[in-house]
Structures are given as C-alpha cells and as structure tokens.
Design a protein that fits this description.
By secondary structure, the chain is an all-alpha fold. The protein has two domains: 96 residues, Helix-hairpin-Helix base-excision DNA repair enzymes (C-terminal) (Endonuclease Iii, domain 2), CATH 1.10.1670; 102 residues, Hypothetical protein, domain 2 (Endonuclease III, domain 1), CATH 1.10.340.30. 57% of the residues lie in helices and 0% in strands. Helix 3 packs across helix 4, helix 4 packs antiparallel against helix 5 and helix 8 crosses helix 11. It is elongated and about 55 Å long.
Amino acid sequence: MNAATRHEIFRRLREANPHPAPELDYGNPFELLVAVMLSAQATDASVNKATAGLFAVAPTPAAMLALGEAGLRRHIRSIGLFNTKATNIIRSCEILLERYGGEVPGERAALEALPGVGRKTASVVLNIAFGEPTIAVDTHVFRVCNRTGLAPGTTPRAVEERLLRVVPREFRQDAHHWLILHGRYTCTARRPQCPRCPIADLCEYPDKTPAGRRQPSTGTV
C-alpha cells in the first residue's frame, strides 16, 4: 500500500468521524488508567457498568486504596480476571501515592512500571490523558492493519512501529481511535461489513464480504 492510499484511508475515516472519542467512561487520568486496565479481555460496556459505581466512591488513588482490594473486587467481579486486576490496581495506587503524589505520570517508562500496565495501556493513557500521538494496538487495530494492508505485521509491536512510520502526522493523534472503532463496528472479525465500509475500494483484503451477505449495522466508523 502506498502513501497516497494510506492518506486517503485516514482522510475518509476522519471525514466519517471528525472527533473520535474513547468508549470507556472516565473523569480524570486516574479513572482512565483504571478503566483501561480493567478493559483487558473485557468489553468497554462491561467496564463502564462496573466503574459507574466504583468511580463514584473511589475516583482517586487514595480513595481506591481506602476501598481496599476486597472492596474493589466487589465492584469489578463482573469483569474477567477481576482478582488479578484488583491486586494490580491496588498496588498501582500505592505506587502512585508513594512516588507521584497521587498523580498519574505522563512518561511511558513510569506507566509501564505499574503492575498490570503494558505497552498498549500506557499508549492509551499517554494519547488520551496527555495528548501524545501514540498508537495503541489492540486486537481490532491489529486485525484492521493486517487485513487491509495498511500496516501489516506479525506482532502488535511490529504493527505499532509500522503505523508510527507510515501514518501521516496530521492523523496520528486520532489514528488508533479510528482504527479501533473501524475494527469494532465495520471491519469485524467474523464477517467484515464490506458493503458499507468507507474504505472498501482502498482495502487489499481479497475476501471481502459480498453485498448479499451484508449484516445489520451495529455502529458507526
């Protein structure tokens, strides 16, 4: 895929959704960090349902720590891997209070040093909370980039590094939001919605879903 095609892909995605936003609910950088940690192997909808009550009583590291691991588990037990996530979140709160005065650090190394925070989570926090043009590669982004030919790679890190090289600078801040939403609602895993895809004519996927097999719409790009 050449540079002109990539530019046109992102131009169309931006045209369809000029101001993409994350689908996780949060009110401050700490809540964003916790929500993203909880979202691993869970849907955003399930996380939002759990955090509605959780953030009402624990919107800061100090309040979360006061809630305790057992109290946190009660709020998030509907989410997969909630025991491990509760342990990691409480330990992360301790570190945030001990080292950063209860604030979420804006440096990748500091974020990735927190228990349960990997590269993808750190990239999301840096992008949304601190305005850095990072690109977080989740399963949706990985699939879209490989399926379309936009930025193929055998690992999420390889896809991320290629995206950072080839995504035009004007689109980089919002690139991962567009790609996540596109993969979640249009370029779906089991049956991509090719007949209503705004970039179908630019996509290199050889097995596009024909118009006769179009599925009901579940969202927008």
